[in-house]
Amino acid sequence: MAPPQNNIVTSTNRGDTTINVRELLQQPWYKYPHLRKLYAWMSVVLLVQATNGLDGSIMNGMQTLTYWQSYFNHPTGAQLGLFNGTQGLGGVVSQFFLWWLVEKIGRKLTIIAGAVIIIIGVFLQSFANGLVMFACARAVIGLGLSFEYTAAPMLVTELAHPTHRAQLSTLLNTLYNFGATLAAWITLGTLQIQSDWSWRSVSLIQMFPSLISITLTWWVPESPRWLVSQGRNEEAYKILLDNHCGGDESDPLTSFEFNEIQSTLTFEKEHSTGSWLDLVRTKGNRHRTWIVFTCAIAAQASGTTLTGYYLAVVLRTIGVTNAQHQAIINGCLTMWNMGWAFWGAFVIDRYGRRPMMLTSLTGISKDLVRALTEMDQYNVDGNVRAGQASLAFIFLFTAFYSTVWNGILTGYTVEVMSYDIRSKLICTQNLLVQATITGFNYLNPVAIEHISWKYYVVICCIILLEIVLVYFTYPETSKITLEEISTIFDGKHAVHNDLLAKQEDQEEPLDDQKGVAVERREVSTNEA
């Protein structure tokens, strides 16, 4: 009889009942047929974030298109902020009911509903006949996007094999750069169209990821955690068995995961009131809420909205005024960011969340200061070399950002949330992200035109504060299962997997309980 595919190694420095998820599989994921199938379907969910990237890059690209500028009378300042800011308003409104909806109808249906809304918004935007209609379309698109990026991180985190949870959940948000790259180069191509279709055709492209979502999401497995919460235990067990163990009932991981999920959700249900006050009721939940609150703001307050939505404006301030040159730089920058984001997603479990966040913030602060210094020098004396240097430091700054912060909102904050408050905290996080983006989208074009470097000095001070927050308040969460992360926040009050204790009390495996056969070994878990 072939040995089980998953080898459970227990007793990490998080406790005797925790397991090292990096030790589970002895081969790469692509050598397991069931994981190839699972991740092929999950790629449909991962594609969700490409829609957001398309949106951000398209708004950047449209500002380089002559016909878009002419059609909307060359918007600047607060008016330009309105074009981008209304997208966030749609996302803000939805967060007040999405926390309930995603638990009521599940992760998959929420994603599909969001895709339908996005398609409606894209049609309105593509055929807009004025500022009001365009702004309303942006709000509708923001509403639909919020459906998708509320449910998608939950589904990816809760469905992925434990060994690959960190990489996949981080990869979700990094696919923003994939969508942004496509949009940037497509926009460059449409510069040759001598009509309003130069921007209308680019806008229509936004619907294609949503069409894929509507068509294929039905066949993606539902979250086993959500199924257990709905009392559909047999379905949840079958999904874990088929997708994590290849249907092998002798594999110990299925029982280990199912018991851990069931016992944790039962405990949380017994001790949760279902109220929003649960977010601050216990010491562990207050810590979780603090991380989500600060991380959501930090991810958007590090200068990223500047290059993400107003790159064309920034380029004009350093002497790059040719529309084609702006479009080429936009395309190259998004490809550059995508490469670094993908690399960060694949190494985040190896190096740890904390070390990567601290390194990223240090690099961001250093290179952003240099970029702004050179930009100011160009504005003072028109030094061409200063403008070129500023552009180089923009590339370096965005590389440090993309490596970590593109994916951290799905690769770190979602996993620190316990199931009973996950939907509420994700909506809180999205609300903060959208509010921060909206605020910076209104302020950035005004800042570029009027208060220049003083505004960016404030951003640098914010980044230094973020470094302090990460160092003192963000714990490491790598190499343990999703439920076991509660041991970090809840300590002795956390639920422990009792199958391991039962295993020790018996000489034979618990076949009647689908017990877990384990290898007992001390494993060191990296903590920064």
TrEMBL record:
The keyword Glycoprotein does not apply. One of its GO terms (molecular function) is carbohydrate:proton symporter activity. Residues 41-478 form the Major facilitator superfamily (MFS) profile domain. Coiled coil: none annotated. Residues 511-528 have a biased composition (Basic and acidic residues). The chain crosses the membrane at residues 38-58, 78-102, 109-126, 290-315, 327-348, 391-414, 453-474. It is a multi-pass membrane protein. It is found in: Membrane. It comes from the Eukaryota. GO terms for cellular component: membrane. Keywords: Membrane, Transmembrane, Transmembrane helix, Transport. Residues 504-528 are annotated as: Disordered. Its main location: membrane. Belongs to the major facilitator superfamily. Sugar transporter (TC 2.A.1.1) family. This is Major facilitator superfamily (MFS) profile domain-containing protein. It comes from Saxophila tyrrhenica.
